[in-house]
Amino acid sequence: MFKAVGFYPLYDLVVSIYRAFDLFRRFPGEEAALAKFLETIKNFEGRGRNDLREFLDFTGAAGGEGWTIDVPSEIDAIKIMTIHKAKGLGFPVVLLLLYGEKWIAPDFYIDAGEEDDGSGTPGAEGGIRVYKINKALAEADDRLKTIYESVKRKDEVNRLNTLYVALTRAEAELYVIGVKSPGARFPFDLLGEPFVSAETKPPVRRRTKEFQGRPAPAERSAGPFELPPNLRDSLNYRNRRRGELAHRILAGLEFMTGSWEEALAAAVNTVRPADAEAGLYAEIAETLARNLGGSPIAGFFGPRPGRRVMRELTFCDAQGRAFRMDRVVIDPDAVHIIDYKTGADGAGGFGSADNGVRARLEESDREQVRAYIRIVRDIFPGRAVRGILAYVDRRKWETLE
User: Does the residue 352 lie in any domain?
Assistant: First the structure.
């Protein structure tokens, strides 16, 4: 590849690298990024440039816009964008990050004759003048004060318009996170007292076995820019990470060869966890072995003539929407879809939820599996298709057809 530099067009060179290292197969979750990289090279070559060194310089100077990966609106994904880029768009849930702002006076002020000093005559008398004004000078002269206040007022209007855009993008839920700094009152002076924001960084706290998550906040009334406390335990990082690692371990388990402990240990070894998470991996593998061994779904991990297993594979429905299924067991006479759910005390990790909330979450899980069943029936017509909800930590198994 090094010898081909300068002889191959840049696009052809990168395609050759993709093919040599089989990147699309080795990194199945990064197709969008790999395709975007090729698209950026194509746009670069469209400018009449084809030099590798120039492209490397271009990648550092292009900024964020050139590398933005646009996600189709029907895909369930998080989009990160500036307030200006979100103008005219709407989203079911918006997390709005606001930093405190204060007006920074410009070095120079342009007077294009638009302001009237009260005499009825345009200030610049039809021409354009450039002033260097500070606050003290503005206070000493009415004419300069008019120009100074005009520029400041326009900046305030622009910031208000931007804030309005930000606060009106949410269709159902809006979460406002504020980061204050000394002397920067906007926009927190407008949001009022109910808006709570720390003025200093919170202390870093090491996560220990004693500190598994936050205690449930006390009941209190919600202010105009707040929602009631969210009790979803799955928002806790450790719980979410635990679920991710459990799925990763089970994805490495095709067929059982020996005991559950041996099979899961082998699956963990294929992941090669970092030292910091080795203990968590071992804890999860022990729980999986204890709860899956002898369970009603244990038989779907054993070999059988004509059986195929697909793990963490993405399927599309008739509308082109993508769904990733945890485990699809394909037998000559039937297909079973197993969907893992983690969390010890509730559906999806909703540990402190009451029975009504838990029931709604479990029904949402059922709807998800029913959607999987409809997709797989179209792919394997003539075979019986069943879905199994596996609440692994709770040892609860539910079959859907």
Answer: yes
In angstroms, the CA 385 to CA 366 distance is: 15
- Of 48, 67, 86, the domain-final residue: 67
Domain count, the chain: 3
Rounded CA gap, 113 and 123, in Å? 5
What's the pLDDT at 356?
Answer: 67
The count of other CB atoms within 10 Å of the CB of residue 335 is 21
Q: Are 194 and 284 in the same domain?
A: no
What is residue 5's DSSP assignment?
A: B
Domain containing residue 339: 237-400
Question: Using an 8 Å Cβ cutoff, are 361 and 343 in contact?
Answer: no
Token pair belonging to 281: 């991996």
| Pick from 161-170, 275-284, 331-340: least confident | 275-284
75-108 pLDDT tens trace:
777 888 888 888 888 888 999 998 888 888 888 8
Asked whether residue 213 is assigned to any structural domain, the reply reads: yes
pTM of the model as a whole: 0.43
Identify whether 1 is part of a domain: no
In tens, the pLDDT along 319-333 reads: 777 888 988 999 998
| Cβ(227)–Cβ(320) below 8 Å | no
Give 287-304 as a DSSP string: HHHHHHTTSTTGGGGS--
Say if residues 271 and 281 touch (Cβ distance below 8 Å).
yes
Same domain, 266 and 138: no
